[in-house]
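Let us work through a complete example step by step.
Step 1: write down the sequence.
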Amino acid sequence: MKIYSQLEKSKDPLDQKVLRFMTINGSRYDLVDELRPFVGNEPAPPGRSLYPRDATQAEIEKYVAAHPEQKADVYNEQSLLRRDGGKLKSSGLPRGVRGISEASSGRLAGSCEAERRCGVCKVFAAARGRFADDDYFASDIGWLDLQDPKFDLILAPYETYLDNLLGVRTSYGAAVLSATKRRARSWRFFKIRR
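Step 2: predict the structure and record it as tokens.
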């Protein structure tokens, strides 16, 4: 976050390009180039920001074996794992991610007003609700009920590929898929890292 803050204040055009690339990647590591850093030299930690920076798989498994009552909490896919003294505890979304989710929810409300006639409104309303309670089932089922949809919208913490430590923690992502008669196209327009 310190790098983001410094770049945001800069008027240098190159700094602004780096800031944009960091925003697209969600960090200073290039998602397309095997997580190589494009700012600094320090490699990406295997757990990214989903775990304590120095955590290892062996350490986490040993902790869960010693504290089986905390297994569900430690392996909670929609959380961050943090150290609290000698304990490992999961925590919820950082404030910044929640703010982006709420802003997206507001935009979906505006889209819902514009799309009342085509049945997408019901799906958008369900999608708005999922930001508040992290329940994505209703909006997922809503897309299945649509007849011949022209696009698909994915806004959820479904992907675990950022978790190179245990492979269980999800990160928020967004995609718009647009279907045409000839082909389907997908655009990723932002990624949110927990």
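Step 3: interpret the result. The longest helix spans residues 95-114.
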